[in-house]
Amino acid sequence: MNFKKVFTAVIVGLLFLSSSLAGDNIAYAAPAVKPFTLATAGTGGTFYVLGGAMSDMMRKYANAKMTPIVTNGSIENNRLLGSKRVAMAINYPDLIYYAYNGTEMYKGTKFDNLRYVGGGHLGATQVIVPLGSSIKNLKDLKGKSVAVGAQGSGNIAASMDLLGVAGLTFKDIKPAYLSFTEMVGALQDNTVDAVILLAGVPASAVTDIFANKDMRLVPYTAAEVNAYIAKQGPEKKALLFPYQVPANTYRNQKEAVPCMGVRACIVTHKDVPDETVYTFLKTIEAHVAEMAKVHPSGAEYSMKFLKEGASIPLHPGAEKFYKEKGVTVKMVR
């Protein structure tokens, strides 16, 4: 036996194996960021759908594990973030402003560790009633049983704004605190007179309501919305605007319906690593077209919307991303 040849063959084999393993390590590099969670909302809304799409983008393009979790919604999400039980959340500029400053529903508990990541998709505050309902405008909600959202949800705050447009409060209606899924059944069973539902268009819960029973959206005008916004603070001005649900969004909805639009956002807390926030923004912004295939609102995580609606300070990882893009993000005042 020629031991020299055998030794050479072994060395060549080891070098080949080492090269292969190195190639594998390049192809399957360790994730750029540690696994983290994203708080969304209930399964019948757009937050949940978009959270799943974002998770897919992070897995496919950043080799990072991001897990979207179901919650009661935005009001709860800020508490989860402030106590560091989640790393990020989809939310609304007014609610993170209140949480950061310890006002409104967060009075006595100030979450000033929250940080802004970026603006997000545009939703609509939609009022759904049976086709033959006597409710023709927002003032007609007075005295009626109205589903306003689950406790802890952003839908509660949206319902307050919606009623405010008509000069009403929760004291003027019979509020039913229901999740999106529960709203569908309640309206179809006639246990409530109307549903107030904030979500990106089309909202799966609204689609479900229209699919099984003849329904309609209650219109309210841009003039009404603008008059309400004019009386509000900077957090509402970053959040609200006149909007229209396009014609044929839902079954038998043949005309565009004027209503109030709402801007969503992404928020985190200050101790989330800069690289996590930077990688998230870079990955999502680069793949909005693919997110739009999951839900049309996914297209709105482009730079046009990401740079808007900052009602609290930016996270340093977000600052790095926007600076790299040559974009200035201004806090609302």
Explained architecture:
With 333 residues, this protein is of the alpha/beta class. It has two domains: 36-120 and 265-324, D-Maltodextrin-Binding Protein, domain 2 (3-Layer(aba) Sandwich), CATH 3.40.190; 123-263, Periplasmic binding protein-like II (D-Maltodextrin-Binding Protein, domain 2, 3-Layer(aba) Sandwich). It is built from 13 helices and ten strands. Strands 1, 2, 3, 4, 5, 6, 7, 8, 9 and 10 form a ten-stranded mixed beta sheet that branches. Helix 6 runs parallel beside helix 7 (204-212) and helix 10 packs across helix 13 (316-324). Residues 1-30 have low confidence and may be disordered.
CATH class of the largest domain: Alpha Beta
Any idea what the CATH architecture of the largest domain is?
A: 3-Layer(aba) Sandwich
Supply the CATH superfamily name of the largest domain.
Periplasmic binding protein-like II
Q: Order of helices and strands, N to C?
A: HEHEHEHEEHEHEHEHHEEHHHH
Which fold name is given in CATH as the topology of the largest domain?
D-Maltodextrin-Binding Protein, domain 2
Tell the overall outline.
globular
The number of distinct structural domains comes to 2
Q: What is the alpha-carbon Rg in Å?
A: 24 Å
Describe the main β-sheet briefly. 10 strands, mixed
Taken as a percent bin, the fraction of beta residues is 15-25%
Secondary-structure class: alpha/beta
**Average pLDDT over all residues:** 89
Number of helices: 13
Low-confidence stretches: 1-30
Distance between the termini: 84 Å
The number of distinct β-strands equals: 10
Question: Helicity range of the residues?
Answer: 40-55%
